[in-house]
From TrEMBL:
This is Lipoprotein. Keywords: Signal. PROSITE patterns: PROKAR_LIPOPROTEIN. Residues 1-29 form the signal peptide.
């Protein structure tokens, strides 16, 4: 393969790794939240807590309702 083929592939792989790392950090933070307050992994209370914390964290990172992306200045 030549460098013109490898460069876009490397960029795509890098973006995928960053995206997956972001998802893992939300889930691991939610897991830390629930285990730090005493829930045991696998219990019903833990599962409810985990789902609620993941939902809350996704809301934290979501854009506000009704917001529109603005054009780039660049």
């Amino acid at each position: 393969m030549n460098s013109t083929t490898l460069r876009p592939l490397a960029i795509l792989v890098s973006i995928a790794v960053i995206a997956l790392t972001g998802c893992g950090s939300i889930e691991s933070a939610a897991q830390d939240d629930c285990t730090s307050i005493g829930w045991q992994i696998g219990s019903k209370g833990y599962n409810d807590c985990f789902k609620a914390r993941v939902y809350e964290r996704k809301l934290d990172y979501a854009p506000p309702p009704g917001s529109k992306p603005s054009p780039s200045v660049i």
